[in-house]
TrEMBL record:
A GO MF label: tyrosine phenol-lyase activity
Residues that bear N6-(pyridoxal phosphate)lysine: 271
Enzymatic reactions: L-tyrosine + H2O = phenol + pyruvate + NH4(+)
Domain of life of the source: Bacteria
Assigned protein family: Belongs to the beta-eliminating lyase family.
Keywords, ordered alphabetically: Lyase, Pyridoxal phosphate
Descriptive protein name: Tyrosine phenol-lyase
Organism (species): Candidatus Bipolaricaulis anaerobius
Cofactor(s), by name: pyridoxal 5'-phosphate
Amino acid sequence: MRRVQGRERKDPVDKRTIAEPYKIKVVEPLRATTRDYRAEKIREAGYNTFLLRSEDVYIDLLTDSGTSAMSDNQWAGMMLGDEAYAGSRNFYHLEAAVQEIYGFRYVVPTHQGRAAEHITSQLRIKPGQYVPMNMYFTTTREHVELAHGIFYDCIIDEAHDPANPHPFKGNVDLAKLDRLVQEKGRDAIAYLSLAPCVNMAGGQPFSMGNLRQVAAWARRHGIPIIFDATRAVENAYFIQQREPGYAGKPVREILREMMSYGEGCTMSSKKDNLVNIGGFIATNNEEFFVQAKEMVVVYEGLHTYGGLAGRDMEAIARGIYEMVDDAYIASRVRQVEYLGSRLREAGIPIVEPVGGHAVFVDAKRFLSHLPQEEFPAQALAAALYVDSGVRGMERGIVSAGRDPVTGEHRRPKLELVRLTIPRRVYTNLHMDVVAESCIALYGERRAIRGLKMVYEPKKLRFFQARFEPIVP
Ligand SMILES: Cc1ncc(COP(=O)(O)O)c(C=O)c1O
């Protein structure tokens, strides 16, 4: 409350627009193209938005991975890169930032997240062991399977229902964990892989309450928790906003508490850490650290650079401090919600609640005339590009790939188009352009045809698969 001319009233500042906590110093021009041009480009790209050239894209919502705008402080840090082969000063800055903000003692840099996943999976999984995860992520599961591990989904059922408004759809179902231990025994489990703000579920967070229960369960069974910490700060923000007892608590403290329940993490710095390249393994387990250091030399580079330049490590170190600024993270997640609210108001089916990094359009309901075998999410992403030059990506049956045992398509319940918002890159007017294009397409959705796959890579097929429209 504020006293105004002797009267007390609710502070009007509470209700005002909150702007981005930064101003723009450098701009990059965008190129608009015609509809005919885009129709030709998507045909050339085999109806796969991953195969478009970025110069042909107007607003790029393919991914939030490596697409962040860095701050002046990060760019200044790039100039202070110590490009020594061994013992670069920037490595020690990175190590200190991870220790202070994530709370893990040992740090091994890698060139990006999947390299950290590769090393972790190879070292921590014995052939035939299970790795329970709160839903899957494409590269994480791929590395588990390459290490002859078996993925086991332990996320709550609500996460598979796009319309379910559960505030913490990233939560783990403890009954599913119990069932696995009862059926297979404790030794059949390598570790628990927990992802904050679960990407494939729509960027959905887990609650601290659930995490505490899972950690107690894991301790009881002697099973370590290794986080995929890629979007942990966004998860911490949702805990601050939604979970009793955390309102007003700095995101930095919430993140630290979350990480305290794990033995370590793999990390794709290309997301939360606000950089264009990088990743790391962090752990409190000294034995694993020593093994990871030995292995990183084979695949990435010396353990004090892990495939990164000194300047990259400096940018990550500085990004780690910037990401836990409460004003920044609030503005980032609110922008995602802004786009979600525009689509929701227009009646477009989206995954609810809107997650931390992307709005996921429910292609199953949007294109209810197309069966899943005709790749509705792939078709919708292609149609959106043709309509407006906005690039999203498929997260459905194509991304799910084939079952390694039966060779059949995996059929996920979620058939989604992901509109992923890069950090600090676009304004809300760009979001309006995206929303208008989705609304226009929704009006003419019956005209969108299904696709057939004409080229299918064996691994992570969504990146390079090619399609053609089904001619009636
Ligand atoms: C949840 C999650 N884990 C791991 C990765 C892999 O990280 P990278 O792309 O840096 O290899 C990603 C990337 O999109 C991700 O979203």
